[in-house]
C-alpha cells in the first residue's frame, strides 16, 4: 500500500467511452468515435490502438469481450495517467452499479423501468425468491485490472444495503405476510431479511472470491444509506455480515446525506478501515462542507477518511490550491494527516473525460501541494 | 397532468420561481427539480391548461388532479425571497388556489393536495396550524371536491386535527401508518385508504385488501372509504401499476358484494 501522505484514488465509475455503445450493438462507429480513440490513445499512451480501430470497423466480427477489454484498458490508463495512486477500470464493464450486479444474482427479476428524474427511467428488479450467486461477478474484471494496472488497485462493489434499497421486495414480504399483519412492520422486516441475505449469500462470496484472487482493498458503495437514517444500524449489520471471514482492507463509500446520522452506529463496523465521503459538493470558502469530519474525530480514532475534494456534478475544475486547502483543513480537523486519503466526491461517470481528467490531475497536484505544506 | 414531477407544472406557471437542480424525492431513488423561489409569487393565468389532457376530461365522471399541498410545496422549494415561512406558505396557498380554480374551470371535479412533508418529517404545532391556514387559502371559493393525501409517513402525527381542515376527504399511507395508531378517534370524514403499495411490485391479493378495509371500517368508522394506492405510482413500472389498480377495483367489488 502507498506510504506517502494523502494517497489519491477515484471512487469508481467513469463515463463509458463513446464508441463502446455502438460497438456492443454491432453498430457502425462514427468519425467522432475514431477521433476519440486516437486522441485519448495518444494522451494516455495506449499502444496497438490500431487493433481497436480495426475491430470498430467490423464490430460484427469482433468478440464483445474485446471491446469491453479495450474500454477497461483505456479507463485504467486514464486514471493512471492522471497520477492516481489507486485505480480500477472505471466500471467500464458494468452497465451501472445496480443493474450489473443484479443480473448476476439468481432470485431477482427485472420488473421494468421506473422514473429516475424528469422523463429519465432506470430498470428496477424485484427479489422474487431465495438469492443465489451463480458465480462471483467481479473476479474477471479484477484479474484484467491486475494484469494491466501499474498503480495499486481498489475494487468498488455495490453494497448489500443499496442493492436491497433500490429493489422491489416481493419474496420476503410474501413470506412474512401470514405472520405480520401491520404493513409498516411487514415492509421493515422484509427489507431486513433481504439486506442480510444479500450480505451473506451474495456480497460475502464476492468478497471472498476477490480476496482469493489477490484483491487487497475492496470498497463497498452504499449511496442509499443516508436516505434512510433510521436504518443505519441495518446497514452496519449488513456490512459486518458481509465482512465475516474477510481479511483484506475494506472501505465504504457513502455520499449525499447527513453524516451525523451515521454515528455512533458506524463505530461498530470493526472491519471497515476507511470511509470515503462526499464533502466538496457542500463546501464554501469557510470550509463548512468539511465540518462533519469532527464526528470522525469524536467517535472514531482509527479509520481512514477518503476526503471528497472535487464536486462531480459541476464542470468547473477545482484549482490545486483549493484542493490543498481542503486537505489541510481536514487534516487539522481530524488531527492526524495520516488518516486522510484524497478522492472525488463520487464516481465521475456524469462528467466528460476531458473534465474528469482536469479534475483528477488537479486532485493529484493538490495532494502534492498539501504534502509540501506539511514537509 | 403532463408533469415531470409533482411540483413542476405549478412552478412553471408561477412568476418568482425558477427551476433548479435535482434533489432526492424523500427516501426514494427518484429525484425532482427543486423550485427556486427568487421573487414574489404570482400565478400566470392561462398556462396550466397546457398540462391537462383535455381529451380525458370527458372520459371519466370525476376527473381529478393531484397538486402539492401549500406546505409541502413551500418546504420542498429553495426559498431565497420570503423572510418568513408563514408568508411563503400563505403565498403558495394563494397561487395554488388560483391554479385549482383555473383547473376547475377547465372541468376538473376534484383536486387532491398531496402532503408528504407533514408526515415524513417532524413538524411543530405552529406548522400544523400553518398547514390548516394555508389550506383555507388554497380552497377558498373552489368549486370542486378537495382531498388531502398524506404519504411516506405516519398520519397519526396529524390525526385527528387534520379532520378539521377544509377538505372533503383525508388520505393515509397504510404502509407507514397503522390502524392502531388512529383508532382512538373516529374518522369523521371520508378516508382515502392508501392500501396498495406504490413503492413495491408485490401484487396485493384483492381479498386481503378487502379484509384490510373491513378492519379499517370496524376501527375508524369513516363515513366513506376510498380505495387508493398509498402514494403516486411513478415508483412502479407501468404494467405493475396498472395491475395494482385492477386489483384495487377487484377489492372494491368484493366489498360492494358484501354490503
Topology:
The complex is a heterodimer of chains A (375) and B (259).
Chain A: H1 18-24, H2 31-43, H3 49-57, H4 64-81, E1 86-87, H5 99-103, E2 105-117, E3 120-133, H6 139-148, E4 152-153, E5 155-158, H7 160-165, E6 168-169, H8 171-176, H9 183-212, E7 217-221, H10 232-243, E8 249-254, E9 274-277, H11 293-299, E10 304-310, H12 320-334, E11 340-344, H13 353-374
Helix pairs in contact in A: 4-6, 9-10, 12-13
Chain B: H1 8-12, E1 14-24, E2 31-43, H2 54-57, E3 64-68, H3 70-76, E4 78-79, H4 85-106, E5 110-114, H5 117-120, H6 125-139, E6 145-149, E7 169-173, H7 179-182, E8 191-196, H8 206-220, E9 225-229, H9 238-258
Helix pairs in contact in B: 3-4, 4-6, 8-9
Summarize the structure.
The complex is a heterodimer of chains A (375) and B (259). Chain A is of the alpha/beta class and 375 residues long.
Describe this structure in words.
The complex is a heterodimer of chains A (375) and B (259). By secondary structure, chain A is of the alpha/beta class. Chain A is built from 13 helices and eleven strands. In chain A, the strands form three sheets. Chain A has a six-stranded parallel β-sheet with strand order 5-7-8-9-10-11. Chain A has a three-stranded mixed β-sheet with strand order 2-3-6. A two-stranded parallel ribbon of chain A has the order 1-4. In chain A, strand 7 (217-221), helix 10 and strand 8 (249-254) form a beta-alpha-beta unit. In chain A, helix 9 packs parallel to helix 10 (232-243) and helix 12 (320-334) packs across helix 13. The longest helix of chain A has 30 residues, at 183-212. The mean pLDDT of chain A is 95. Chain B is built from nine helices and nine strands. In chain B, 45% of the residues are buried. Chain B is an alpha/beta fold and 259 residues long. Chain B has helices spanning 8-12, 54-57, 70-76, 85-106, 117-120, 125-139, 179-182, 206-220, 238-258; strands at residues 14-24, 31-43, 64-68, 78-79, 110-114, 145-149, 169-173, 191-196, 225-229. In chain B, helix 3 (70-76) crosses helix 4, helix 4 (85-106) runs parallel beside helix 6 and helix 8 (206-220) crosses helix 9 (238-258). At the A-B interface, strand 2, strand 3, strand 6 and helix 9 of A face strand 1, strand 2 and helix 9 of B.
Amino acid at each position: 500500500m502507498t506510504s506517502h501522505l494523502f494517497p489519491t484514488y477515484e471512487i469508481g465509475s467513469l463515463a463509458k467511452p463513446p464508441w463502446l455503445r455502438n460497438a456492443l450493438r454491432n453498430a457502425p462507429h462514427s468519425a467522432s468515435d475514431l477521433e476519440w480513440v486516437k486522441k485519448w490513445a495518444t494522451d494516455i499512451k495506449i499502444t496497438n490502438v490500431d487493433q481497436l480501430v480495426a475491430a470498430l470497423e467490423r464490430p460484427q466480427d469482433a468478440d464483445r469481450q474485446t471491446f469491453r477489454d479495450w474500454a477497461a484498458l483505456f479507463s485504467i490508463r486514464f486514471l493512471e495517467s492522471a497520477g492516481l495512486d489507486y485505480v480500477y477500470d472505471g466500471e467500464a464493464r458494468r452497465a451501472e452499479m445496480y443493474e450489473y450486479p443484479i443480473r448476476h444474482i439468481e432470485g431477482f427479476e427485472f420488473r421494468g423501468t421506473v422514473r429516475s428524474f424528469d422523463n429519465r427511467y432506470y430498470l428496477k428488479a424485484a427479489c422474487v425468491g431465495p438469492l443465489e450467486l451463480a458465480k462471483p461477478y467481479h473476479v474477471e474484471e479484477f484479474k484484467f485490472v491486475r494484469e494491466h494496472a501499474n498503480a495499486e488497485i481498489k475494487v468498488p462493489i455495490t453494497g448489500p444495503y443499496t442493492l436491497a434499497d433500490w429493489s422491489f421486495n416481493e419474496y420476503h414480504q410474501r413470506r412474512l405476510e401470514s405472520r405480520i399483519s401491520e404493513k409498516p412492520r411487514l415492509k421493515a422486516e422484509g427489507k431486513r431479511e433481504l439486506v442480510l441475505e444479500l450480505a451473506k449469500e451474495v456480497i460475502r462470496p464476492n468478497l471472498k472470491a476477490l480476496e482469493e484472487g489477490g484483491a487487497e482493498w475492496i470498497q463497498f458503495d452504499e449511496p442509499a444509506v443516508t436516505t434512510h437514517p433510521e436504518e443505519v444500524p441495518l446497514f452496519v449489520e449488513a456490512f459486518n455480515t458481509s465482512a465475516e471471514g474477510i481479511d483484506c482492507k475494506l472501505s465504504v463509500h457513502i455520499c449525499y446525506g447527513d453524516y451525523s446520522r451515521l454515528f455512533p452506529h458506524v463505530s461498530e463496523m470493526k472491519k471497515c478501515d476507511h470511509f470515503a465521503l462526499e464533502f466538496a459538493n457542500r463546501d464554501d470558502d469557510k470550509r463548512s462542507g468539511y465540518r462533519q469530519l469532527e464526528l470522525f474525530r469524536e467517535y472514531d480514532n482509527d479509520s481512514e477518511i477518503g476526503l471528497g475534494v472535487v464536486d462531480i456534478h459541476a464542470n468547473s475544475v477545482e484549482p490545486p490550491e483549493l484542493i490543498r486547502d481542503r486537505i489541510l483543513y481536514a487534516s487539522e480537523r481530524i488531527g492526524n494527516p495520516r488518516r486522510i486519503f484524497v478522492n472525488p466526491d463520487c464516481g465521475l461517470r456524469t462528467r466528460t473525460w476531458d473534465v474528469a481528467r482536469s479534475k483528477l490531475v488537479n486532485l493529484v497536484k493538490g495532494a502534492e501541494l498539501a504534502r509540501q505544506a506539511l514537509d | 397532468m403532463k408533469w415531470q414531477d409533482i411540483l413542476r407544472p405549478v412552478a412553471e406557471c408561477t412568476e418568482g420561481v425558477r427551476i433548479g437542480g435535482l434533489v432526492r424525492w424523500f427516501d426514494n431513488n427518484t429525484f425532482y427539480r427543486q423550485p427556486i423561489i427568487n421573487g414574489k409569487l404570482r400565478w400566470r393565468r392561462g398556462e396550466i391548461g397546457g398540462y391537462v389532457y383535455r381529451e380525458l376530461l370527458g372520459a371519466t365522471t370525476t376527473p381529478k388532479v393531484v397538486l402539492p399541498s401549500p406546505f409541502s410545496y413551500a418546504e420542498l422549494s429553495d426559498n431565497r425571497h420570503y423572510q418568513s415561512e408563514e408568508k411563503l406558505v400563505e403565498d403558495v396557498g394563494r397561487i395554488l388556489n388560483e391554479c385549482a380554480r383555473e383547473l376547475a374551470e377547465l372541468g376538473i371535479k376534484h383536486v387532491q393536495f398531496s402532503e408528504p412533508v407533514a408526515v415524513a418529517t417532524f413538524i411543530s404545532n405552529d406548522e400544523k396550524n400553518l398547514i390548516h391556514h394555508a389550506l383555507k387559502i388554497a380552497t377558498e371559493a373552489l368549486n370542486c371536491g378537495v382531498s388531502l393525501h398524506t404519504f411516506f409517513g405516519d398520519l397519526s402525527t396529524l390525526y385527528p386535527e387534520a379532520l378539521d381542515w377544509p377538505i372533503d376527504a383525508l388520505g393515509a399511507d397504510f404502509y407507514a401508518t397503522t390502524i392502531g395508531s388512529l383508532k382512538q378517534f373516529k374518522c369523521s370524514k371520508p378516508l382515502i385508504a392508501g392500501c396498495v403499495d406504490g413503492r413495491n411490485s408485490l401484487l396485493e391479493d384483492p381479498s386481503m385488501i378487502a379484509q384490510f378495509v373491513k378492519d379499517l371500517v370496524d376501527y375508524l368508522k369513516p363515513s366513506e372509504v376510498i380505495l387508493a394506492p398509498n402514494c403516486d405510482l411513478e415508483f412502479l413500472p407501468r404494467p405493475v401499476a396498472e395491475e395494482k389498480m385492477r386489483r384495487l377495483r377487484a377489492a372494491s367489488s368484493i366489498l360492494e358484494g358484501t354490503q
